[in-house]
Amino acid sequence: MRDETNNKEEHILWLDGLRGIACTLVFMHHFILAFFPAAYYGIETESSLNKIDTLLAKSTIGIIFNGNFWVCIFCIVSGFVLSLKIMNKRNRGGISESILKRYPRLVLPMFFISFLVYFMLKMGLFSNLEAASYTKSEWLSGYYLETVSIKKVITCSLYSVWFEGDSTFSTAFWMMTPLFMGSFLTYLIGVVTWNANRYIYIVYAMIAIFMLKKNSLLFCFVVGSLFAYIYYNSKKMMENHVLGILLLILGIYFGGYPSNASPLDYYSILAGKLPENINAGQFYHMIGASLFIYGIFCLKLGKMILENKIFLRLGKISFAIYLLHIPILFSVTTKIFLILYKTTKHYFVSAGVGVCVSGILLIIVAGLFNKYVEKWCGKITDKIVNMIYR
Q: What is the DSSP letter of 329?
């Protein structure tokens, strides 16, 4: 165990880069769902690229657009960062403040997004239903169909998103429940492991096995906490290029397991091997994400790449990207697509221009949201907590 008197707040840059990539690829995943659903479901009748897109649904290359895998990556990184903060705290009072700050820091930005969607619905700014008639995406046509009340904005922002997975204001908000619950599980594990010896691995193993059997995303937070414990007590993970490359390959293989398409060829060996009550896609994605991240820990080059300024910038605004990308996708991306497609009849070009323009807009808006909204929410949260602990 390291001497607590030498503890310093640590910030691992490459984890920010990885988190930024994960959120960006979740946006791309939803773009694929909206405009190229065959690349996700593998159904040839939904193909918009002469059945070429159906191959992505059953190929390891599909990991790039496999949103559930990148959600697992995000959850593991979140668990790692939160756990490391707890382990570096000098006193338990600091832990109490961190726990108390978590809810308002998540809720306040969420309220702004919910109100934004409420306003956009009132103004009729969503064009996803019309776009879905061309893209053949049932997913795209399933949201923002009617206006909502201010009461719904408040109840969703304060309660139902976090405890019931309410996706009224964004289909991506389903992740907020495991993110919220996972945060507090991470805090609990962090407190339990404070100053613990190597036998704590038994506790990690028991919790991880339970979450894995439940096929719960909370497994990712347990893994993130375990990685943080290993890092905290050894100062750095073991760097081994051979092991790192092997783990990355395995992580990509498991991470590319199709979420909805029927597993074929080299994925058929994994199909049907799990109990019926376990979603195979999520199970293999959680395993793949764990292997993938530990593989990066073992590779110096991988960490250097993720510390690129572009990736770090994306990581800084990653939460804003996640909150904003669905409203922008369902309004700006679909509107650009409709205008271009009705004019040119070129499906791929229309969708490509739409995602490029809206992607740039998303990064700009997310940067502004992070600077003016998230930081303001953080200041408000700090003031509230300081009043309690004064």
A: I
